[in-house]
User: Fold this.
Amino acid sequence: MKRMLSRIVVASGLLLGSSVVSLVHAADVAVAKPDAAKGEQLYANGDAARGILACASCHGAAGNSTIPANPNLASQPHEYLVKQLVDFTAKDDKSKPARGGANGAPSIMAPFAAALSPEDRQNLAYYLAQQALDPEAAGTASKEATMERGQHIWRGGLPDRKVPACAGCHSPNGAGIPGSYPRLAGQHPAYLEEQLKHFRSGDRANNTVMHEIADRMSDADIAAVADYAAGLR
Assistant:
């Protein structure tokens, strides 16, 4: 009986360890209940006194980006957004941020994220999680020639290369699972393709599972599934 309980505890720990919530820094978890109004104010206007630029200048009104290189943030899970803002920032002077840019360069987000307090991160994420994805700003699938391939990878994965179905974690309609996996439906396909390549190269080193999955995918696989995912609703 003790051995069985021990196994249950270990298994539970592994599941929790894979969740976004457990990976967020303790400082962020300790913040009081997030304030969406403060998050909206910071998102829309920034804070010049602290050198914080308005997030809306790159990510659009209410998190609806009209620039394919900049992701839509509206409707993303609160916990996921907090984790990403944490991962853009180095833990100390001797380490690199878990989320970097191409070819080992710092992400363009690094200085912006570093200027945020744990409270800022929580407020911004809480505000964005409540915003609706605007159909006019949402990304969409546009490559008919690869649609079947993208759908195959999304729904069934690539068993011969041990690539699991994307739908298993990000849900069949791409809405994601709040607290664990991000929304991919309506995201810009160019952004999704870029991030999968960053996972594959290790430049984005904040999710070991995604690195292993992307490492087994070709450029053609990545482009096909990124385009298909963008068209989900």
The two ends are 46 Å apart (CA to CA). The chain has 13 helices and no strands. The CA atoms of residues 98 and 205 lie 5 Å apart. The first helix runs from residue 2 to 17.
